Amino acid sequence: MKRTLIILTLTLYCCTAFAQQYSFLFHPQGLEDTVLYIGRHYRDEVQLLDSTARGRKGYHFQGRRPWERGVYALVRQDRKTVLTDFLVDDSRTLTLSGDAKLSAASLRVKGSKANRLMYDYIATEDAARREADSLRKAGASTDALAERMTAFEEKARRDGQHNLYMQLINLCEPAEVPDSIEDKARYFRLHYWDPFFDSIAFYRSNPSAVLYSPQLFSKLNVFFYGMLYRADADTIVLELDRLMARIGDDTALARYVIQFIEPRYYRSTRNIGWDAVWCHIAREYILKGRCPWMRESEIYLTKQNLARIGQSIIGAHGQELWMLDTTQIDAPEHWQSSHRQPTRYVILWFWDPDCHHCQEQSEELKVLYDSLTAIGNKRFEIYAVGYDSDVEKWKRYVKEHDFRWVNVGGTHVNIDYQEAYNVHGAPTMIILNERRDIIMNKVLPVKSLMAFLDNYEKLSARTAKH
Fold first, then answer.
1. Looking at 270, 288, 312, which one is the last position of a domain?
2. Are the C-beta atoms of residues 323 and 413 closer than 8 Å to each other?
3. Which residues, in sequence order, are CB contacts of 138 under 8 Å at separation 6+?
4. Which of 271-285, 291-305, 316-330 has the lowest mean pLDDT?
5. Measured distance CA(62)–CA(435) in Å, rounded
6. Which CATH number goes with the domain that contains 342?
7. 0.85 surpassed by pTM
8. Structure confidence at residue 308 (pLDDT)
9. Is-contact 71 10, C-beta < 8 A?
């Protein structure tokens, strides 16, 4: 069945704000909350705007206020649970009653044709989903249901083409993929934003409607954390730049997108190499003056963070560490270098003997390391940095567990390795290649380590041929 936008959380503002009389009466039968709020959605938050106590007839919001046309959230007394969303149209009058959850199928609407259309649409979509689930469980075909819903959706769009709710649906509709396209996934990614920018006239006349809509948040979330979840940093950067180019000089929309993406890739631990996305945003957008909403202090902090994080991303040259071994004797022969090892790869292993996960991973590393050493196939050296201020405890743990790799620790060190490699917890794993460039900067499961090195060598060989 064709997937359409199901809106239960949208917020819309149009530029028609002026104080006028309004009356919004909500009667969720059986709801015991003493107070309800009206709010708007911004990204993944709800900003509360008004409140009222429960009265004899329900929850009555009334008075004079510059409500703008749009979709608002009715929020429960916990100040975060959205009971339902509702449209504010030109009449500024609405009576809404139904069950305690104000489910779409139970709602009775007075004073607003736009709200009636919205809830009828949602109720029909909800019923279709339940019917589809039942048919699938019974092993029956859903083809007839899909055809019926397609016809329903097309009619709803025709009948409500000037209705605010249907315009929002059209704005966030996914791109259509022609049957003739072979690489459908790539086509869908490249044209994902077409419906949005095809409806740019609607956005230009209703900017707040879109910016305060959680649907924009959802659309961005699906794109960057759904479609691009397994993409490498270069691909994500390419798609970000393509989107920002289409946004152009629209500061409000650019701010929304940058503020959505930037914190999610800052020190990202989800996928290998994703911190390079944040570095790109910092370097190409924030520090080049393309984020005019940012304060000077924020820009300065970004510059400081980029200087630190940028030197530890994949592709950067790893900084050489010199530290004392377990003897802790300050003599030349007891200083150990992270770079001057005879193996092709060096694994920088920042660990803490008090960390349970560090203990488990270190034991697994030991099994692999000892096995490779025994068969004469030690492709890497482990440069293990004891991430603990209690030197005696660290030395004792190394001896008891017979770690035969390069063990270093203590306070004698040539540079601040936490800053040099962005180490902010244990365990942290950094893998350096033969040039001592960083090729991995996240903790890999030990069982995946050899496969990672094999894949890296295959990729390096293909790259060298070209």
1. 312
2. yes
3. none
4. 271-285
5. 70
6. 3.40.30.10
7. no
8. 85
9. yes
